[in-house]
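Dear H.,

Thanks for agreeing to be a second pair of eyes. The structure we're designing against is below in token form, covering all 224 positions.
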């Protein structure tokens, strides 16, 4: 594993000679948990895997402001537009320049709030032409499916969406709608003619994470 710091942290599991790279947006504190997965996945898929952290999670991953969830959680800041501009215009180009990646085919994978961000980004940029995955995405987010209904996608890449079959089992009333809302988003993607794959998988929100990420990589990188 190599570390590149552009203001964001890129923990990189490289595959020399491969032009494919999958960026995985992760919350602080889980890099050690999925590091072993990333090393294995990069070799299996002939794809450099870069675990990206260091963002302001509740602000940078949310497309507009909203109240926080659970007790004592800070509100969501709605800074995704600015973060996306910096991610595709500054951080990733700087990382690829330092790492020697030329004409890369890029995938983007998000987990939880970054899964929300990843799908939202498809309506703002075609930068991630290799595919976009939302793993246990926070698609319950206020107004998200309504926003998608009124927008046209910019990206024609494949979208992969997965949800744990126990994720709706929560006391938070907003988060408890995640299964209903996720199915709404899948239907919206299909209605708009987007290439979307949906899977309901065993598990809760984060656990088990590695098998969910494996399925996302399989869906984005397999050859049909």
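And this is the sequence the design step returned. I haven't edited it by hand at all.
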């Amino acid at each position: 594993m190599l570390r590149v710091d552009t203001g964001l942290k890129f923990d990189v599991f490289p595959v020399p000679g491969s032009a494919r790279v999958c960026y995985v947006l992760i919350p602080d504190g889980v890099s050690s948990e999925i590091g072993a997965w990333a090393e294995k996945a990069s070799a299996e898929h002939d794809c450099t895997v870069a675990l990206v952290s260091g963002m302001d999670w509740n602000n940078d991953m949310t497309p507009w402001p909203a109240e926080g969830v659970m007790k004592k959680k800070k509100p969501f800041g709605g800074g995704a537009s600015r973060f996306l501009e910096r991610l595709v215009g500054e951080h990733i180009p700087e990382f690829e320049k330092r790492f020697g990646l030329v004409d890369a085919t890029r995938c983007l994978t998000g987990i939880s709030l970054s899964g929300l961000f990843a799908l939202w980004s498809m309506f703002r940029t075609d930068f991630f032409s290799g595919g976009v995955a939302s793993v246990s995405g926070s698609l319950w987010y206020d107004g998200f499916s309504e926003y998608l209904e009124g927008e046209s996608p910019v990206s024609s890449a494949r979208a992969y969406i997965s949800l744990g079959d126990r994720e709706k089992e929560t006391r938070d009333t907003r988060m408890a709608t995640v299964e209903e809302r996720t199915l709404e988003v899948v239907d919206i993607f299909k209605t708009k003619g987007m290439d979307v794959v949906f899977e309901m998988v065993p598990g809760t929100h984060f656990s088990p994470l590695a098998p969910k990420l494996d399925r996302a990589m399989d869906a984005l990188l397999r050859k049909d």
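Two observations from my side: The chain has a mean pLDDT of 93. Helices lie at 31-45, 57-60, 80-99, 113-121, 144-149, 178-191, 209-221.

Warmly,
E.
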